[in-house]
Specification:
Length: 87
């Protein structure tokens, strides 16, 4: 998998939205284990793990392909342009 770690949740949300506007699907689905249903039930960790939660909020999974074709180049360019506006 290919992931990108954004500066904050707001930037991740903006990137997802702008990529969606260009018909590029990205996902975030990494729920910290301690906050998952089983984690809340069986975990021995404290109620919060701030670093884990922060990284989870900023992580975004990018589309992944084997090889590089023209439509992948479009995705890379779109991500690069959007990130340039966010920073």
């Amino acid at each position: 998998m290919t992931n990108i770690l954004l500066r904050d949740l707001e930037n991740r949300t903006k990137l997802i939205s702008e990529l969606k506007d260009q018909n590029i699907q990205t996902v975030f689905h990494y729920v910290p284990l301690h906050s998952s249903p089983a984690g809340r039930r069986f975990s021995r960790t404290p109620n919060t793990l701030p670093v884990t939660e922060d990284v989870s909020d900023r992580l975004l999974r990018l589309p992944l392909w084997l090889g590089l074709e023209e439509h992948q180049v479009r995705v890379i360019k779109a991500i690069s342009e959007i990130l340039g506006k966010l920073t």
